[in-house]
Amino acid sequence: MAVMLRYEGLAKGCCTQRQIEDYGKFLISKISEAQLIVKRCVDDESFSATKNHCHDNVDEYCNINKNANPIRGWICVDAVASPFVIFVSHSIVRMVSGELIDITPMNKDLQEYKFLPSYLNDEEFAELVEHLFVNQGNTNIMVKNPHKAGF
Q: What highest taxon heads this organism's lineage (predicted)?
């Protein structure tokens, strides 16, 4: 099994603005590794996903389905007409086969997207997401992309 790269720049207890900015720059450096994720309905008699509750859905699904593991990370929103990339916190599932799937119903227009793992452990990711929500009212990290010309 390959060793997963970990990001070590967030202090226990999270997070200064500088740490978040540095982490955002790290995510930009990894954006070429983002994978295309397709949504899949996995609802059955034992599980029903709740719209826009990805972290809870993934936790519940992985508790029921032992062939699945949670993956915490970021939807990468990289609009052509903007110098910024927005990383939206999100959780998906890695099946034992290695396939990555999104089990959470969301916007109908978002049926596939680029996803980047967090490179954090679950506790660090949860602390960061909570910090972002408390301090910003959302769970996004917005970073200027230095690779975009003309901005």
A: Bacteria
Could you tell me if residue 140 is left (phi over 0), alpha (psi between -120 and 50 degrees) or otherwise beta?
beta
Tokens for 17, please give them.
């603005």
DSSP helix/strand/coil, 127: helix
Reported pTM: 0.86
What residue has token string 């996995």?
A: 42
Judge whether 89 and 139 are in contact, CB under 8 Å.
yes
Q: Where are the domains of the chain?
A: 35-144
Give the DSSP letter string of 43-111. -BTTB-PPTT-HHHHHHHHHHH-TTEEEEEEEEEE--TT-SEEEEEEEEEEEETTS-EEB-----TT-S
- pLDDT under 50 in the chain at which residues? 1-3, 151
User: CA-to-CA distance for 89 and 63, rounded, in angstroms?
Assistant: 21
> For residue range 39-49, what is the model confidence (pLDDT) as tens digits?
888 888 889 99
